[in-house]
Batch of 4 targets.
Target 1
Amino acid sequence: MTSTIAEILLAGPRGFCAGVERAIDVVEVAIEVCEPPVYVRKEIVHNQHVVETLRQKGAIFVDELDEVPDGATVVFSAHGISPAVREDARRRGLRVIDATCPLVTKVHLEAIRYARERYSIVLIGHQDHDEVIGTLGEAPERIHVIASAADVDKLEVPDPSKIAYLTQTTLSVDDTRDVIEALRAKYPKIVGPSRDDICYATQNRQAAVKRLADDVDVLLVIGSSNSSNAIRLVEVSRSAGTRAHLINDARDIHPEWLEGVRRVGVTAGASTPEVLVTETVAALSRAGVAVREVHVVEEDVRFALPQELEQMARERGRTLPSRTAMRQSI
Ligand code: SF4
């Protein structure tokens, strides 16, 4: 089949957010400065390429803490954990490095505060996502998880005047607005964060897709099938009337998706490394195909590494390696 592609439009921003960069750096630095082996509970971020690369560098990924030997070092993933897991680690004498994204921690703190003030808490999110499981664990007896506006109808709380809402950080901005409106209509006294908890990276990547959707015939979203924010990017494009496909990498592209296509959009979820974008663009490119970046906003967010990592390095007489140098590796 002869390619009809004339232009590839790259969404900006795309790919790694500050929370993912920090989580990857945590594992890489831990492998470098801690007593091996370094265990990681759950996928550090939801991307197979990242997990495989870190595994090759020496990280051991486990699903639950009972797979980690007593006294070993374990990293908690960017999605956060419930207090029960933290307590289990403490009881087992594990050395913990917490790579939970600070923006997820913020949602946990909000849940703790509302629970202390005896609110019923509506957590808008996906029941089976690691982040929601972690947040739910802060106050399981008070938190109700809902995913859509339709779920609001079925919701029952003991005191409708004492209710708060929180959101998973990686939801669709538009869908969440509908759910919050439905909650406000049913519970006029509901309180919540000043906007919602959807993080800057999720919002910016969705805004970039909205901008791109009008200008392309098809959008390719690079990300894993368990990456919430990548799946949302596909949904945002389809809601705007533009075909979109989620791919792990360039090998997943079906030639029939590109039949008669002049302009292809490419973006990547917040846990997708840029190398997969570069490979995808190379696979789509032929002589004469233009590549253009469409930027909606610049990002300059960066989170510091957890203090416990510095402490562990000090104990071994080491200093933390440069994060900028490490960044080149994935
Ligand atoms: S997507 Fe947002 S909440 Fe999740 S790790 Fe990235 S910055 Fe943190």
Target 2
Amino acid sequence: MSDFTGKTGLIVGVANKRSIAWAIAEALSARGARLAVTYQGERLEENVRELTAPLTEPLILPLDVTSDEQIASVFEQIDATFAGLDFLVHGAAFARREELAAPFVQTTREGFRLSLDISAYSLIALARGAAPLMEKRGGGSILTLTYLGSDRVFPNYNVMGVAKAALESSVRYLAADLGPANIRVNAISSGPIKTLAASGISGFSSILQHYRDRAPLRRTVETSEVADAAVFLLGPAGRGVTAEVLMVDGGYHASGM
Ligand SMILES: NC(=O)c1ccc[n+]([C@@H]2O[C@H](COP(=O)([O-])OP(=O)(O)OC[C@H]3O[C@@H](n4cnc5c(N)ncnc54)[C@H](O)[C@@H]3O)[C@@H](O)[C@H]2O)c1
């Protein structure tokens, strides 16, 4: 079992107990990590404070990833409290309902900008903030969450698929930039899971059923399974892995039909 005792991490993307980022936070905390967990806006603050109450001395901070000031403040507070950082989990994504319902060709300039900013650019901004703190520890590990819609067309995934393609490409460029500082950057491509973000995609339940019918494992995955893969990538067992997109989808991606 990977031991995270004495390690500190930043978790971005917890909305509620169904969030994939929350399952990852729980798995890391159970292995000894001390965590900073952010919430997006006052609406989610209480949820996140209640959820994280059982963790060991969590640092709870506001973060809207569209704000450079809030990003800077998060890393200042983490450095003041933890004096460095070992890992970062990025689980923030957003697309407006209009963009997830209308035909893709109707994607608006503003909807595209917002989706790419929140779901892809934010990884670059957070990696830039995390890197100096990770260098203090002799290296670190960064992980983001993506979906196969980056590469293939899924009904109504639309602009989010384009954002995930940008995100996966950013993983590779960041891995190349930060690798010499012993900072690894990877993504997990999760199969579909019923979460708050997923509820915005019209017809999401038919995507879930398709996976149950077609994936080699004949089922969908659970957040705890993504979390176990995250423990591997973030911890010492994954020390030779960077610039990778690891599929945790019951094998669905291999199906030809
Ligand atoms: N659920 C799935 O089927 C699935 C599959 C593959 C990948 N993913 C990805 O996993 C990640 C986590 O999503 P989830 O399914 O756990 O849903 P979720 O709704 O629990 O998490 C999405 C998070 O993004 C945050 N967010 C949105 N806009 C933000 C902003 N401006 N600033 C800061 N945070 C912001 C939300 O607060 C929320 O915590 C996302 O990147 C998602 O695309 C999800």
Target 3
Amino acid sequence: MQEFVGKAAFVTGGASGIGLALCRALAEAGGKVMLADIEEAALDAAVASLAGSGQEIRGVICDVADPTSVDAAAQATFSAFGKVHILGNNAGVGARGGINHIALDNWRWVVDVNLIGVVNGVRAFLPHMRAHGEGGHIVNTASMAGMVNFQRFAPYPATKYAVVGISEGLAKEVKPLGIGVSILCPRFVRTNILESARNRPERYGPATPTDTTNPLYARFAERVRTGMHPAEVARRVLAAVRDDELYIFTHPEMRSAVEERFQAILAAFDRAAAPSL
Ligand SMILES: NC(=O)c1ccc[n+]([C@@H]2O[C@H](COP(=O)([O-])OP(=O)(O)OC[C@H]3O[C@@H](n4cnc5c(N)ncnc54)[C@H](O)[C@@H]3O)[C@@H](O)[C@H]2O)c1
């Protein structure tokens, strides 16, 4: 998709971090934008912050884990803008993991938001994009944690590997419809993701308290706080949408970690191909 002027976008997690930066970049490129988010006050502030962009900016409350909520947000977007060409399935949360924190509520929450949220977005918007026939682009926010698991036995990388997998499949299916797919895989970005639990619905029970004195956590938190600026991530996303790129990497230094994983996989194939003794 070369041109954003006059095109409408729907972005989940639009009230904060990468989602908000993406909405700002789309508006600056001439697009109309619907910010969708579960956090009402942050959403209102985010919409207000984009009011001077000169574009049509709206906000809608939406819980991506709930298909009824996503369908309602989609209908509000169609009513506001008519045709929608860009879908950003970006909302995401992190929760504690590791073999000492196997809480099923954590798994359900993170899977519902990070994985089922993407499915709900595609389910609500793809029929509309197919029907208007003008093509479009879907950006699914995964993570570098969808390429290499640095986070132990945890729901976050599980969902991000899944987002990479389903997006690769989706890309093949929608290409003949003139719809592109990009998979955003950043490493550390300076956002509010460390405070994900602020938007954890009660139905998933209380969050496992974070031990902020744990040196591993402190190092991780510092790397998020000093991570890439979300505007830089959004700039890469728009370039990738224009050039119809499937994978969007923002941190080139992660190449060696991905190579290491792939080499281990290729070595296993070499063993499979070796004559058995
Ligand atoms: N920050 C990083 O270092 C980093 C790295 C890789 C990938 N990501 C991914 O980027 C995406 C955006 O996260 P961020 O870093 O900007 O964090 P953020 O916390 O700043 O923004 C996430 C947004 O998602 C919203 N949200 C949470 N649950 C929701 C729900 N059920 N329905 C709708 N909205 C919901 C939050 O209210 C918030 O506005 C996530 O998918 C995250 O996994 C972040």
Target 4
Amino acid sequence: MSAIDLHARPSDSYEAKLAHTTAVLTSAAAEHGSRIVQATSLGAEDMVLTDLIAKGHLSIAIGTLETGMLHPETLALLARIESHYGLRVQAMQPRHEAAVHFVEQHGERAMYQSIELRKACCALRKLEPLSRLLEAKTAWITGLRREQSDGRAGVPYTEREANGRLKLNPLADWTWGDVWHYIAVNGVPYNPLHDQFFPSIGCAPCTRAISLGEDFRAGRWWWEDELAKECGLHVKPEGVAA
Ligand code: SF4
């Protein structure tokens, strides 16, 4: 059974949500011009956003974090986006020396040794490249949804970050069923790992399939405490409102 068979069930307000998301993307593109980027995780939600951006011919750049640890299926999807939509995806990689030095010092499996080392790996493979992707940008777009985890239950449609940059989460109120309904109806390319019970896909060493009844993000950093389960991309510094 595919992820579409399993999940594509639109909510009653699906059409209204779709209209709202389309309007948010269209007005953000008009407002920010060349200074807005979709930071795609290449997950199902982000594929919906990329599809809307492509079909709307919106002037929103697409960028992703090519951490050096992605599954082959994820890398193949990256190439597929470019061929399917004719869009260039800016793949931000970690600084080579920093990645090599980290592995030399701590080994290939450092992320399993401690939360500190896992976060250090995320910092050099994700946070630093993200900061370069967002350089000179006045706004960025994510596929965050409230339903994804307790920690994301309060995700707003838009938030002003401490540095003044606008963060847009146009799918904040979409359900998982809405996401897959959109993908099914629009023939959106997606990561085949979703068909193998990977709802949330990150780096290969830090992602596993989930079992029936497990939480959406149970397959991410599964060896860690629930509270630690973010890579830092969407964590606010203390004192900054959500
Ligand atoms: S998700 Fe895992 S492999 Fe990827 S950057 Fe974080 S710790 Fe490293």
